[in-house]
Amino acid sequence: MRLQQLEAIVRRVSELHPNYLYFTEQLALANAGTSGEEEVYFHLQELTTPHRIIRNMSFLNDAQHRHEIDFIVIFPSFIMCFEVKNMAGQLHFDLEASQLIRTRADGVIERFPNPIEQINRHMRVLSPLFPNIPIIGAVVIANRRAIITSKPPDFPIFHADYVHSFIEKNLMQYTESILDLDKAYARLISLHSPRKEPLSFTLEQLKYGVFCKKCAIKMHFGRGKFICTRCQLQDKYAHFQALHDFRILVDTKITNQQFCQLCDISSRHAAKRLLRFLSIKQRGKYTYYAIPEQILTMNLDESNDSLMR
Ligand SMILES: [Zn+2]
Question: What is the number of other CB atoms lying within 10 angstroms of the CB of residue 122?
């Protein structure tokens, strides 16, 4: 959800928004994080030993502080937690000062929170849930161009291509089957409660219009369809992306007037026709259209009226 929301923000929120630059930076970070996790997941798929994988586990501890674990892999004899870092440059893990120092190729030095402490924090919460079960944490560096210059000797930190060998090594060490994979999986999934991002924008903070999915420029509306003046793409349903973004950023329901403003459509009758797929909700004197979560994959049952291109 977080990545999807940031994508919607960068596509749809006005560049004049005071935090716009921050949002573009967050989107770049989220994209890097996701591709780093994909790299690790690729190596996990090579496992032939029975296991269960939980990705992006998110839960609150008893003190209502949030834990976000990139990967939990459950084996019959132990549980493994991976914290994935997708960063290039030279990485120096300084345990005493609890920091990760990164020296970029251009010489810039940056400080990041210590991922070892993040892992230790997760393990402190998981250990009481699984007493007598070994829980092993590791930091995985998913960027092939990163160089680990120093690390504490007793904590596993390695590149993604070592994930498989690291697991094999632990499977040799811990051989006693003590966990029911499905029960342990169900136990952890029952804790999972993803962060709910508040809808924090107003219609006035958004860019108006329907944008071409190829060129990202504003499309022209006429005769019931949206047309891109640059690539000539014609799409009767291009406004669905705008509705989807509105749902993520502002509200799950929209009035005809708000829709006209959002999509820059002058005729409320044309708007009514464009919104005919959505169910109508009455709230006092206002009529709203409910925007379904799956609007982008909605099955439009209009015979002889198929999507153009
Ligand atoms: Zn176009």
Answer: 22
pLDDT attached to residue 159: 96
Q: pLDDT per residue over 136-173, tens digit each?
A: 999 999 998 999 999 998 999 999 999 999 999 999 99
Q: What is the pLDDT of residues 239-273, one digit of tens each?
A: 999 999 999 899 999 999 999 999 999 999 999 99
What phi, psi does 97 have (nearest 5°)? -90, 0
pTM as predicted: 0.70
The strand pair at 135-141 and 157-159 is best described as parallel
Q: How remote is the CA of residue 125 from the centroid of ligand 1, in Å?
A: 50
Are the C-beta atoms of residues 88 and 105 closer than 8 Å to each other?
yes
Angstrom distance (rounded) from CA 75 to CA 52: 7
Domain that includes residue 252, residue range: 203-307
Looking at 140, 158, 191, which one is the last position of a domain? 191
**Number of structural domains in the chain:** 2
Considering 191, 217, 241, which residue would you say is the last residue of a domain?
Answer: 191
Give the whole-angstrom CA distance, residue 168 versus residue 165: 5
Mean local confidence (pLDDT), 45-56: 92
CA of residue 237 to ligand 1 center, whole Å: 14
**Token pair 């120093």 in the structure block, residue:** 150
Nearest-angstrom CA–CA distance, 58 and 70? 9
The CATH number given to whatever domain includes residue 278 is 1.10.10
Query: Is residue 196 one of the residues assigned to a domain?
Result: no
166 alpha carbon – ligand 1 mean position (Å) = 48
CA of 214 to the centre of ligand 1 (A): 5
Does residue 197 belong to any structural domain of this protein?
no
**Above 60 in pLDDT, residue 226?**
yes
Whether residue 176 is found in the same domain as residue 207: no
Instruction: Assess whether pLDDT exceeds 90 at residue 93.
Output: yes
> How far does residue 235's CA lie from ligand 1's centre (Å)?
10
- Asked, for residue 13, whether it belongs to a domain, the answer is yes
Q: How far is the CA of 278 from the centre of ligand 1 (A)?
A: 26
